[in-house]
Write a structure and sequence with these properties.
Elements lengths: L33 H19 L4 E2 L2 E2 L1 E4 L4 E4 L2 E3 L4 H22 L2 H6 L1 H17 L2 H9 L4 H26 L5 H10 L4 H21 L1 H7 L2 H4 L10 E4 L1 H4 L11 H4 L9 H4 L20 H13 L6 E4 L1 H6 L3 H8 L2 H23 L3 E7 L6 E2 L5 E11 L5 E8 L10 E5 L4 E10 L1 H6 L3 E11 L8 E11 L2
Antiparallel strand pairs: 1-2, 3-4, 4-5, 6-7, 8-10, 9-10, 10-13, 11-12, 11-14, 14-15
Length: about 475
Amino acid sequence: MNPPPSTTTADGTAPTVSLYQAHKKIYAKAVSGRFVRWRWVFVWLTQIVFYGLPWLMWNERQAVLFDLASRRFYIFGLVFYPQDFIYLTTLLLIAAYSLFLFTAVSGRLWCGYACPQTVYTEIFMWVERKLEGDRAARMKLDAAPWSARKFGRKAGKQVAWIGIALWTGFSFVGYFTPIRTLGGAVVGGALGAWEIFWLLFYGFATYGNAGFMREQVCKYMCPYARFQSAMFDKDTLIISYDAGRGEPRGSRSKKADPKQLGLGACVDCNLCVQVCPTGIDIRRGLQYECIGCAACVDVCDEVMDKMGYARGLVRYDTQNGLAQHLTRSQVLRRMLRPRIVVYGSILLLICLAVGTSIALRTPFRVDVVRDRATLARLVEEGQVENLYRLQIMNATEQRQTYRVRAEGLPGLAPPAPVSATLGPAEARWITVALRVPSRTAALQPAGVHEIRFHIEREAGTAEPTLAREEKSTFVLPR
C-alpha cells in the first residue's frame, strides 16, 4: 500500500497551491467560409448603423439623438419624453424574448454574429492580422526578442486600435450630444467634462475588451455563458461534432482508405481548435465557452474538401439529430416545438402592441399638478378658486397651440380663456386657475370633488384637432 502524499515540504512548511490557472494567450487562425462571410456581413451592418446613424439628418436635426439635457429623445420622426419610459421597458422585453427565441432555435446566434464583443474583436483581430500576420507569424513575432521591426508592428497595431476605440467612443457620445457640435468641440478643444469622460471611458472599454480581454469577456464576465443551458434543449441547433462519423480520429494520407485503417473522418488536424476564438476543442462536445461563431465548421469543411470527404463533420445540428441520425428536414420540423411557439407568440404580441401604441399615440402629453401652497381660496363675488400647474409637452416638430378647459362641477371655468403656444418639441409649465360660482359652492358638499381637464390642440392646415383628458380634484372649503 502506497503511503499518502506528504502535505509539507522538506523544510516542514505547507506548500502553496494556486487555484487559478495562468491565462494562456489564444492565437486564432484566420479562416474563410460561408459562416465567416455571414459574420462579416453583420460586422458591416452593425457598424454602418452605429457609426453612420448620428450623422443622418432628419427635419434639420440629428435623426437619432438622446438629448438628456433638455429631456428629449428624437428617433427619426418621433419625439419622446421621460414620461414615455414605458417604450424603453417594452424595448427591453422585445430584446429579452428575441434572445430567448433565437437561443432556443439555434443557440448563441447573438454571441457569434452580432454581439458588440464579437464584432469589435473581429475588427481588432483583422487589424492584428494585417500588421502582424496570421497565427504562426504572430506566435513567432511574440516569441522573438524586441527589435525595430517588432516594435514597429506592435506600435502600429496599438495606434490603429486606439484610433478605432476613440472613434467608437466619439460616435457613442454623438448619440447624446449632437455629433456635429461634438466634432467642433473636439477640434476646438472645448469638450465638456462629461463628454471627455464618456468618450474616453467607452473608448477604453472597446480597446480593453476587444484588444486584450477578448475571449475572457465571453468566458468569465458575460453571464449569458452561464445561463444559456437553461434555454437549450435537445432540439436546439448548436455547433456539433459528429463523433459517430469522426471517431476514431487519426492522421492519414489523402489517398488512404479510412475504413481499411479503422479510422473515422476526423484527420486530427486540430485546425478546429486553432481557429476557435475561445480556444476550445469542439470535439469534446457542447461547452459553455462556445460562442457559436461556426469558425470550426468552416475550417473543417475546408479539410473535408481537401480530403475528398463529405462536408458536415462539424456542423449545426441538434443533440437529437446526432443521436437519432435525423435528416435535415426532420431536424427542422422538430424545431417547431411548444417553447418556440410561446416565445414567438409573446414576441409578436409585444411588437404589435408597441407598434399600435406608437401609431395611435397622441402627439402631445399633459401632466396636471395641484398647487400645494394654495388648495382653495375665496375670490371676488364669493367664488372659490383652485390653482393648478399643467405641463404641456409638444411631441411634434411643428409649432402648436393648445386650449385648456375643465368640467366636473356646475359653472367650473377659468376666469379667462387659457391657451398656450409651444414651439417644436417644447415642454412648458402653465398656471391655470379654476373657479366655481358661489351658488355652486353653497349647493355642493364641502371636500374634494373630481374634475377633468380637456386640452385640445388646435387644428392646423394639415393636422386634425386632437384632445387629451386628465383627471384632477377641486377642493371646496367648509
